[in-house]
Amino acid sequence: MSLLVYFCPKALNISFLPSYIICVNREQVAELMTKKGLTHGFIMVRLVLLMLSPRLGTLLLCGSLCFSKEFPFVKKFKDISLEKRDRILQNWSRSKYLILTRAAFAMIKSFCFYIFFTRIDENSENPAWGAVGYRLNTEKISSKHRMERPLQRGIIETLHETDFTLVKSLSQKGLKVTEDMNQDAYRIDCDVVIVGSGSGGGVAAAVLASSGQKVIVLEKGNYFTPDEYSCLEGPSFNELYEHGAFLLTHDGKMIIMAGSTVGGGSAINWSASIKTPTSVLTEWFLDHRIPLFGSSDYQSAMDIVCKRIGNQVLRKGCEKLGLKVDNVPRNSSENHYCGSCCYDSTWLVDAVDNGAVILTGCEADKFILEKNNSGRSRNNKCLGVMAASLNKRITKKLLIHSKVTISACGSLLTPPLMIRSGLKNPNIGRNLRLHPVLFAWGYFPESMAEIEGKKHEGGIITSLHNVMSEKSEVRAVIETPIQGPAGLSVMFPWVSERDMKDKMVKYSRTAHLFSLVRDNGSGEVKAKGRITYKLSSLDKENLKAGLRQALRILVAAGAVEVGIKVEEFLDTVTAVGGSLSVGQHWSLHCSAHQMGSCRMGATEAKAEGLFVCDGSVLPNATGVNPMITIQSTAYCLSKNIVKTMNRRKLSVEMQHGSQS
């Protein structure tokens, strides 16, 4: 586990460190850091490692710990003892002012531990898992017992296609395909094209396909069924999450978990399915003046969506403190054991059953816009989407022409797509809300029989507690996450080599609670992968209140490692900044919910035939898991799109009738 003191990627042209790395492959770490890390973070790591090559650089970064009694009196970093190197890392991690070393340390630490806990042998095992009490059922289901893939009838997995087979597959699905020589593309005609298959896109596809429209759904991720899902953290992060679950805000303060597979956010959602709070609906209806959220149509939509929805420590701690704890509706059956599965695709099944076609491994490049000469108020008219397969064997682009185009690729990708397409509204990409999260933990020894099981067993999120203000307003929501050892080690604070070992050995009996706030601060996403975000002072206070309550709950439930004089200790608990912030203490925030970057009323698409049906249209944060809110909003919007298309169809028929 002393990986950090050995780390030295050859890709960075540093050869001064010894090569007796047993725990991690340094080339693997370097490659992952290059592909997934922030560019400026990678530059900081490279700079630190370059500075450690000569003695002068070692002296500047390591101080007196590199002194020697022998000439030339300063040791190179590779010659410093492991004990002192551990102390050097401790100094880097707690440095108040030398942000360079702290940021480099944070990046190296995260990627090293990720590789350490996700690497597997030919039997899909990791020798460290036994030491931390972690075990997964990695046995593959035999082909005899494997269920039919629910979306197979409508899926075209472009990564397995060629130019010839793609055209054939599209034609077999009832789509008209022609070759556009001018654009060097295949032109595909349909009624509706939807970019993204997540909570909003799936609902929109189902509603529009059931109304008789020929629907195409574009998804840059791949299609997996529960039978094909290995539960292994490494492959799962890489295949199911945007940027392999290493998507960070530009300042490195917050790690953002966003779906990147068929089903999008609904495929990785931690089962929690909560209706939009009444107070939020009232705010959106009255303050933001959006009639939809005060209508009976929206209430009906939530009921329809919720009909599709088929933790010990948190509950026990709350009950002992006399706090209210609520059950969380889940999108899984009552007796279902969750473990580390989070998959829901029922809306997409409906869409496919009604003739929708889903193209996977296919990324939208831009919307096809032309000047609108129809006399209507909007300046542009959207004719469809220009897309490309991620498979290099498909040499031509895909020019998808449609009557209606829907962007449903989420709050992080819809704004960049609209901006790339030439839409100019300055509000596009602004007002991004992230539901910032901080974690608290408590260790429960095996001797505590009343707290059964292990960390990774049981339901994912079954209970929640609202932290209320004196005005009876929700300040924070406390819930229980699901975290494997790799995910936990990346988020876990590193104090020293010995401390990290001790903490990870207790993994299976360490319970985590998180404090989630409805953020007032906001961010911006104008280009793919470049996200800026700033917490407001109120957000920090609410996170702090949530963390303190989470620690009280853990202690009340019987945790033995969260402090002795609890109330005195709680007064010191705060929501600190990230590794690039000034101050001795820092932490990594997390976000699993992204909302509001193309909100209703502020960023109405200035193109006829172009609509948005994802979390980006929400006016601001919901304060709870937004899946039901996104699906209900998409349901209402897509129903209105159907009405609009029917009116236009009727108008065209009447014009033809009068002419004849």
From TrEMBL:
Pfam families: FAD_binding_2, GMC_oxred_C, GMC_oxred_N
Keyword Transmembrane on entry: yes
Name of the top EC class for this enzyme: oxidoreductase
Domain Glucose-methanol-choline oxidoreductase N-terminal intervals: 238-437
SUPFAM superfamilies, per database record: FAD/NAD(P)-binding domain (SSF51905)
GO cellular-component term (any): membrane
InterPro entries tied to this protein: FAD-dep_OxRdtase_2_FAD-bd, FAD/NAD-bd_sf, GMC_OxRdtase_N, GMC_OxRtase_C, Long_Oxdase
Domain FAD-dependent oxidoreductase 2 FAD-binding residue range list: 191-224
Protein name: Long-chain-alcohol oxidase
